[in-house]
Amino acid sequence: MSACLRHTPSGPRRRGGRARRGGVQQFQRVLRSRLHTLQTIVIVLPLIGLLGTVAGLSNSLIGSTGVSSESAVERQSALQAMEIALGTAFDKSLLAFPVAIVATLILRWILVRLSHPQP
To answer: What is the pTM of this model?
Structure first.
């Protein structure tokens, strides 16, 4: 027998073939079953970034009450608190949005692969 053939109960069979396709189909089934989780992540990540931005902006506005104070120390303190809150707000967005973009690209790649399987 040739090296590319192997014996099975039903006789010799070429390597790969049906067994490889079965593995690919099983992998596609696993991907489809996990697709919902990835879609949820893609939807939720930008919302987390937006929530962080809104919370940070809200905190900066709450801290802005001392800006109109006549005391230079209180004004300086209020401005520093606003800077920290705004930094937190934008840091959340800068973290969540790129991760969401990468997750979206991965999701798109998987969807294309599942809709156009390789022979």
So the answer is: 0.56
